[in-house]
């Protein structure tokens, strides 16, 4: 039998403590999500509704097939910055007429939907996901263009948005723009470079320069409608392919456009799958509040994979990394999960071999993070930890099957890289509220700085200020702690969202379904699998 057992005791005091700590962190995340959903606040929401317009998320809800999920991406973008949480843009994956699509929607209640630097980063990440997974893109447009106060951070990199649209189209990935309001200046190129364009009567305004700019530049007097209104573009310029009488009509027409795309997934959905043998609610009590304390990742695996069925690979070798095969919502996956935090040479070689096997079999990989990094020390350096860690990182870097990453606990140092952190292009990366990620732990980093400062003082023959050292260490620990928290990292788009552990199976299932829209093919390289 390969069904995982469990040693988790939901009635224990330890479990209760861990669950309480996780729920407290979840409450903080939900409060931040609430700010994103609130957009510009009551005043600007009321003003938007008074104009007879739908909110961004209402537009998405009407666009998607009834009773289908929407996997929102980067909802905490700009958290901790001077800009509104969510970055005035909603992005995510949803189903339209049975087709999984990447949907973006400007939030016009936040500074008129104007784009700030985090909006740009969020939009570029959405395009990256669409391109890698071959997802049709539907853009629900209502934006005043770039927030001019931040133009120095938007103008030059912002051109990539339009490049992305043309690359998507050239790759045969459909792009659809639905214009509900302003789409001006550079924003006019979103409908201009999309395959299909729908505009709303007396609402859409698409022009390179509005009446004031035209007046300043040419002296010409003009009005919004004759310069860039929906009817003009439908009758005269030809920019609009479809003319909608109102917002619901625009969304209805968008659904018909998607229905006529003749779009097919590379691999059909596998159908119903057996649920895990254990309650997903128990995922709340697995990760300890103190990440120095180990936990068994098999307890997590048992609560997210089909039937809790897991064929472990090399279970007696390199035990601090659990590797093995499973299915998740019917899709095959290879799983790498940190067991005791530290990666040694054996774990690194085991991972490299396992990643090669997954590429031979065209099986996506799931990385479950809880690592403090690769082991240090004279014995381990002499034993080749650098070259063995390099094997693992090399294998991750050159693997061609899709990768999914979930940060459950610690994700420090080069271990973050070896476990396919953001820089290694996972198709999707999510974090639990319990996760932390940095170059190393706060205490370790502060301690290193202290040791270096002591050595410097000794070399100069100067006395060492112990009081100043204590103050410096406390300050550094506090800074690194705050910068390693998931909401801080999510705000900078180092992940695709902070998720409730109980939603992990569902989120990963949606991701696996989306990525199978594109072919899943591993790297071969002309060699057989090396036994490392």
TrEMBL record:
Gene3D superfamilies: 2-enoyl-CoA Hydratase, Chain A, domain 1 (3.90.226.10). One of its GO terms (molecular function) is ligase activity. Residues 279-532 form the CoA carboxyltransferase C-terminal domain. It comes from the Bacteria. SUPFAM superfamilies: ClpP/crotonase. InterPro entries: AcCoA_carboxyl_beta (IPR034733), ClpP/crotonase-like_dom_sf (IPR029045), COA_CT_C (IPR011763), COA_CT_N (IPR011762), MCCB/AccD1-like (IPR045190). Residues 22-273 form the CoA carboxyltransferase N-terminal domain. This is Acetyl-CoA carboxylase. It comes from Streptomyces chattanoogensis.
